[in-house]
Fold:
Amino acid sequence: MIGRVLAALLLAGAPPVAAETFAITGGTVALGDGSQPIQNGVVVVRDGRIVAAGDIRMKLPPGTQVIDATGKWVTPGIIAGFSRLGLADVDLTASKEDGGGRSDTSGSADDTKSEGPFSAAIDVVPAINPMDTTIAVNRADGVTRAIVAPTAGKSIFAGQGAVIDTGADMEPVTAARKFQFVELGETGAANAGGSRSSAHVMFRNALREAAQLRRYSPSISARRPQAPDEREQPVVRNPNETRAYGAEARRSEDVLLTRFDAAALVPVLQGRQYLLVHVERASDILQVIELGRDFPSLKIVFVGASEGWLVADRIARAGIPVIASALNDLPASFEQIAATQSNVGRMRAAGVNVAIGMIDDNDTRNLFMERQYAGNLVALQRVPGATGVSWGEALAMITSRPAQAIGMGGEIGSLTAGRRADLVIWSGDPLEASSTAEQVYIDGVRQPLETHQTRLFERYRYLPRTDLPKAYRH
Amino acid sequence: MVSNKGLLAALAAACALSGCAALNPPPPNAAPVRINEDPYPSTYVRYPGVLTVVRHATVLTGDGQQINDGTVVFGNGAIQAVGGPDVASPAGAVEVDGTGKFVTPGIIDIHSHLGDYPSPSVDSMSDGNEATDPVRPEVWAEHSVWPQDPGFSRALANGGVTTLQILPGSANLFGGRSVVLKNVPGRTAQEMKFPGAPYGLKMACGENPKRVYGSKGNMPQTRMGNIALAREQWIKAQAYKRKWDEYYAHGGDIPERDLQMDTLKGVLEGKILVQNHCYRADEMANMIDMSKEFGYHITAFHHAVEAYKIADLLRENGICAVMWADWYGFKMEAYDAIKENIPLVQNAGACAIVHSDDANYIQRLNQEAAKALADGKRAGISGLSEAVAWEWLSRNPAQALGILNRTGTLTPGKMADVVLWNGDPFSDYTRPERVWIDGAEMYDINNAKKRPVSDFELGQPGEGDVK
Structure:
């Protein structure tokens, strides 16, 4: 069935564009900007963008399709704040719980992690498969976009991540190479040879090499001008463009990174590409804030930050957004000793811009759980001593906040005029896991909600034997 | 000269104390030596509670009933009365107003690795898989349980979990014995052990054993290898059991003990319950046939993501399916997971159970049930309700653990394992408000002193925090 839908879309040739106007009326509308839901709200969509939404009365052009959402809820599509969506159809790797064993990626269904020679230069885009069952399953549950990061292999640098949509078409990429992902906590220490000190010096060295890459590209016999050389501020529109840099360039002999990896860090160094930094421990967070002072052009976003509440005021002062695990409350490692479900609420209360991601939590597939997690953060408001978040803020943390964290709030994540029309009509309150996505739109295009799972359900709904085997039921 | 008679008598006396039966063959009629089947006994003692009456709450009894404006009375560790507003309060009882709240039996997680894969997750404390041989029925999970795992307290305070089964991992075809614990902090595993609960045997089919050993070049490398190796053990176990049956019936030389076979013999005798990790429908069918070949019963298939394909077979064979609501695709054998698995098993008349297998999800099992319930209702499956869905969380797991006569439902005379929720537990917005185990209040949302803190957390940042 998915195949049929896709085939229809592909025949059309181009990515689907809905050159039409439609309105959704009568539902409870939540804008995703932190505000509380609006009864009997309206959402108007034209040419794949939001025209207006909320408590509005506007004259609709004749012929506007009106979708009645009475009794339903309407929100922006969920944005998976941190994920590996589209990188693995099946996780074949053996977990520790299963007794170890080899890391089996034969069959290539898992593209999350590379043990190859490159690091920062890795671009997640070629690995994304819009036909993965995981994308369909999450789409069917109202996840319309995802921030997708590679997993660090041998280096502290995992490579460049993207923003994708979950539409049933072959054009998944919304923004390629949107950020570089780096590990500077326990994983970073391990990948750097065993210590955080090593990870930090590797990081500083990598930025040095990125800076020198350009510096050394002119002939080294040329005399350095007194004033800063504009060539030390190369303009890089596409980070991959930097791979072409220095084809004839000379470099210092004191290098650890490949030329490609160093080139990929030029836009990070210049603040033209976001730098997502995974740290959990409070002291690690402070170290990264320090790095930010040494390299003021870096556009840092924290990922994880389970102990963020201990230093929340300092994160807020540094103005660094956080994509956090929603409910981590176990001292799962020595960098998460102070973990509590109140972490998100306390950071938010301190003024930190917090989004929710799935960090080391079924990040290839269970992104749909973010709305359940968000609901649980609301529940904390009624636990004495805990810090929860309001309903509106909880929804924002899985819609507009992740978009804002990587500078895409003007494009996706809320039902605000001009944003892409990614929206979901829910059977009820979307922060209740028991509610379901009944209609899903991406860029204004209504999406199919069938999946491998729904097809299996239909086949096995009734078990009694019939005239032909179950394989003929499709 | 010492008389022969006197020497024999002395020897006999010494042997009676030391059990050296082989030195001095007993006369044919002497009683055989009985093996102690409970050498690591529970030392759990319930903590004191007060006579308590919860009124005006919505009560889900755990056996399919919902009572609106319900009353639950418990004291002396046991449920005393359950009913509507007309249930009388015994003299001296403390009254709890349950208006707007729900009362349920405590949640029972039949599949947990708390204590044997504790937090922090470090190799030095990862004690859940004796992955040195695919046949390890001789290991007992209780000997790995670290009672200071902070996960126990999270399961209690955030999850309302009052009883849990700790299983060995699934690297092995025979992973070892499980242990059932009351979720009451203890200095030792014995202090947590559910008194009188039968042992379970963790078995596994499918990917894990063949991956763990196949990758080392050992058997099993295939699913057929899994089955062949398991059958060989059952053949040995039958022979072992015959030897002991013969000995118990007729005396003679005491057979040599084999720790592996002790456990498998216990299964063949029906004393140890088979808790079988198995995902795929076809593999569950193979395991059922193997159980029939050797004359044992499978109590439950754990994970059972394809239970919906053979729910009729599970019903006919009286086997429970232990399931997640929506986990899928994390490995090949989980590829066909569907969200209606639990309600379809329920609909077929088989025994459905919700489990966590996870230190985080154990804190939200009520929400897992809520998702499965909603998915089932949306699919048009009839006969589903919150009252029925609570059976997946307490009654059915109690049955599959052999403790249904003690706990799992709010039935007078049973252990007072009770949770008061601050709203409908099928909502994401609801949390446990108070949790009683054997009538003792172990958690109170309004009292920081009623919040367990493990030794590991003392003096650490966040000690005693709400978590």
About this structure: The longest helix of chain B spans residues 223-250. Chain B touches chain A through 72 residues (CB under 8 Å). The radius of gyration of chain B is 24 Å.
